[in-house]
Specification:
six-stranded antiparallel beta sheet, mainly beta
Length: about 425
Amino acid sequence: MIRLRRSRALAVALSVAVGATVLTGCSRDPAPRDVGVAWAPKGQAVLVTWKDNGEPNRITIEGVLSESPSYVKYLPADAPNSWQIPTSEFPPDGNYKVAVGTGTSQGGVTSELTRSPVFDTDGPVRPSAAAAAPQGRGVLINWSVPAAGQDFTPNDPLDVKGKKTQKYVPLIGRPGQQLKVIGPATTSTRQVIKSIKPPYVFQLRTSNEWSTRLGGQVLGLTSSVNAAMPALAQFSVVIRVRGRVVLQQVGCEPDAPCGTQRATPAGVPVQVLTQAIPGARWTPVANGTTTAGGYYDIGVTAGASRPYKVTVPVYTRPGMIAGTSNSRPLYTKSVVRVASAGFIGGETAKKAGSMVTVFATVKPALNTTTMLQAWNRQTRRWVNVKATAMRQGQTALAFKAAQAGDFSYRFVIPAAVMFGRPMDGTITPQLALHIR
């Protein structure tokens, strides 16, 4: 019981002490009235107005569920009852009030504070999904803007009406240079940049009444490609064209010259071109894309002797456009391909005195003269047996197996000219025949 009475006495004492403190800081002067906020006539500032009885005033900014910025302004008694606060004094993306009280820097606040309605300082919505497409000697850049987030202070005194409340300033950065403005602010979501070649970086400086943000980046890259392929290839056989694509892109840091860096992404399109006949235009024969590290490996069916080169066409994807490039031309000489060769009927063993027919077919379907040769065991060399006509890529010779023994034959197909370019000849594999 004694402890309870002491606790109540202590609580009463604390209440008296707290009351004394509050009374000490309570207003001795009437508080300002009708504090309002509006946009200053020239923009970029919040115009604060109020009414009072000709007293000095203190102006501060208070956060609503946001940290209050350290802004304080004292005005003398003879100053107008208005003040402009630059928008830069308000932290972006928050909710705030402006509080006005009677007071001086020496005597402090001598009245209660009167506050303006709550308003937000939401900055612009950053552009996204920027994409570029070639247009003449330049590019057309389009970007989209996501929907703005929920407005937690709808219809506040500083809301700017209208759909197009933010503007976009286009900037370009090149290697060794800083980002610079290349056009006036616009409310459009497209920009044509004339006569520009990569490498560069395009960005948008997006601003509204409160703040500015960078977004909507597009990288303009240069490309380079190398290629390797066999110098000789059998006609109609698939050969491999291999190489690597390297892209050079620009990166820019704030207030610093832009630099370049190398990129070797997967998914870059690659095209193999050839020149079918001397002086003809380059035409595509195969397509592919790079894998990780920028490498590619494309199969091409070898035709007649001809040059090949690899090109990277103009390549676009969201946020990037890469310029075209070509490898140096590489010449692949075609070789006549033996499609089949052997003995009619498939038998490699015959009786002495029987008839034997040896044949060969080649690609392409040549019209030429071939030579059948036989292996001479005594001189250890191939000797000519008989010239045979080849028509539409086929030749054959029938002869009598005169004596027993083991024999080897082959056809020699001469070089040829196809589509104005030379083609190497070839020799069939050895064709073994046993006569019993």
